Amino acid sequence: MKLNNMMKQAQKMQSQITQVQEKLAEERVEGSAGGGMVKAVFTGQGDLVELKIDPEAINPDDVEMLEDLITAAVNDGLRKSRELASSRMGVFANALGSLGLGF
Fold this sequence. Notes:
Layout: H1 2-26, E1 28-33, E2 38-43, E3 48-53, H2 63-98
Antiparallel strand pairs: 1-2, 2-3
Helix pairs in contact: 1-2
């Protein structure tokens, strides 16, 4: 009976995880660099969905600066996306640990 109960809990948890993952796909976080001159928007699943570059950031004589700004904005957005996913999924890691299934 205990195994059956654990299976039901695991199935319920799988359904909840799927729902959270679907919501993460809809949520957005924004990374930026250069005082907002470059912005990178990610989903909660880590997909880059938008990149905005202020025309003032474009200097043909300093392409390296723009590349650095893009890299910084993308890394900032990706970090925020990972933090969002971790905060949303953390509850499941705790639940799995309480079932003796922790990682």
